[in-house]
Amino acid sequence: MDQKTENEISYLIRGAIFQVYNALGPGLLESVYEAVLCFELQKQGLEVKRQVPLPVIYDSVELEIGFRLDLLVNNKVIIEIKSVESLAKVHHKQLLTYLKLTELKLGILVNFNVDNITEGIFRKVNGL
C-alpha cells in the first residue's frame, strides 16, 4: 500500500464527503453515511475499517469499554460521523480523545445534517 500522508488522505476524505453529501443530501441516519462513505473511500483505493473497537488502557489494564471509531482510514485518520441538528462541544472533544487514545494525528468530524456540507466538516489534530 502506498504511504499517503495524513494531509493527502484528508484531501481524499473531504472529496468523498462532498460526493456522498451531494448524492444523498442531509437528514439520513449516521449508519447510512458511514456505509456509503466507506464504499466511496474504498473505491479511491484507501483502506477503510468500520466500527473499530477502541480499548482504554487505565492503570496498565486494558478495559473493553465499548468505544468505537466510526471509520479508520489507512490506519492514520479517524472519521467521526454525525447526523445531528447541531454539533455539541462534546462531539469535538470525543474525537480529540480518540486521537489521544490511539496516538493518531488527524481526525475528521463530519455532520451530514447541514444545509452546506462545507460547514459540517472539522479537522482535529493531535500534534500534526
Strand order of the largest sheet: 1-2-3-4-5
Strand content: 25-35%
CATH second-level architecture: 3-Layer(aba) Sandwich
- What top-tier CATH class fits best? Alpha Beta
What class, by secondary structure content? alpha+beta
Major sheet attributes: 5 strands, mixed
Report the uncertain regions. none
Written overview of the protein:
This protein is an alpha+beta fold. It has one domain: Trna Endonuclease, Chain: A, domain 1, CATH 3.40.1350. It contains 3 helices and 5 strands, in the order H-H-E-E-E-H-E-E. The two termini are 22 Å apart. Helix 1 crosses helix 2.
Topology overview:
Blueprint (H helix, E strand, L loop, with lengths): L5 H19 L5 H14 L4 E11 L2 E13 L3 E6 L6 H14 L3 E6 L9 E5 L3
Parallel strand pairs: 3-4
Antiparallel strand pairs: 1-2, 2-3, 4-5
Helix pairs in contact: 1-2
Task: State the gist of this model.
The protein contains three helices and five strands.
List keywords for this structure.
globular; Trna Endonuclease, Chain: A, domain 1
